[in-house]
Amino acid sequence: MHEVNADRTLSELHQPTGGDFGGTKVDNEFVNLLVKIFGAPLYQKFKRNHIEKYISLMQEFETKKRTFDGSRRMALQFPIELGEMYLEDVDQTFQSALHETPFEGKVQCIADKFIIVEELAKTFFDDTIEQIVITADNLLKKVPNMNSIILVGGFSESPYLKSVMRRRFGDMITIPLEPSQAVLNGAVVYGHRPLAIAERVCKYTYGIGRMMKFKPHHPAHRKVKIDGLDYCDGIFNKHIEVGTKIRVAEDAEKAVVHKYFPTTTAMKQAVLDVYASPFKDPMFVDDHGCQLVGLIKLDIDSHGDIYSELLVKMMFGGTELQVQVTDVKNNKITNASFGFLG
């Protein structure tokens, strides 16, 4: 969700959301139908032995997917090889076997055409479209006064998706002339104008795994002993919280610096584990939802000083998470970049 600023830059109003409900999910539903009809072993055998025919079938489905409007049946070229393999495996033609399946009357094979009636074809789309509608509804409740929903990407060419979205959201729906190209064109524009998105909203809570002196409230299984001292391992040290608004141009200067120290005086290499969590206050790096984003390794020489400081700051502007580590004692700066999750 974005707002257009007076200078024509964009500000995110809510952290990015979404899930497994795009065009690929529709493809998977079609594949599930094939598996239910022909069986998983035969389907995999067909895919393995006749990869060109399989690709051709999926490409044709992609074309039909982009033209299906929910009112007409879907007709695909039926791969002859799949029918022959089915006959060889079960000693029965695919057409006659259909009478013994739940898909009788819903799937037909006429000449060389594989025909799926509209009611069954709609089920390929329904769960995906329902999730899109629910997500959009929830976002509009969180951020009111929005006046446009723009459909982009290949799946936006689906007449069925467009009709459902228009029924639900009316005049708010806007569709570019070439929705498939809109994402690509946007990426090119963004490459030339990296500050086009002036303000972002952090999608995850980001932090670094660390040890600290063991305290009574820490779980016993996390206790580790180093040089005679008890530490709690795997603590999530939060750098920035999910939902935080970040001004991209100002982020590097305003990033909060966190201090880290060597675990032992003999430590020659520091390894910082960067984690992300969808929750505001994760306690440990293995809490539910936490994911390892990446590692930063740097050589250090604390000269026997356990209080030798490592200053760490995270910058969240642009398309990457940037981490800068400053070894104060040795006046050494290490930079690393990681792609944002999801």
Automatic annotation (TrEMBL):
SUPFAM superfamilies: Actin-like ATPase domain
Gene3D superfamilies: 3.30.420.40, Actin, Chain A, domain 4
Domain of life of the source: Eukaryota
InterPro entries per the UniProt record, alphabetical: ATPase_NBD
Name of protein: Uncharacterized protein
Naturally occurring in which organism (per UniProt): Dreissena polymorpha
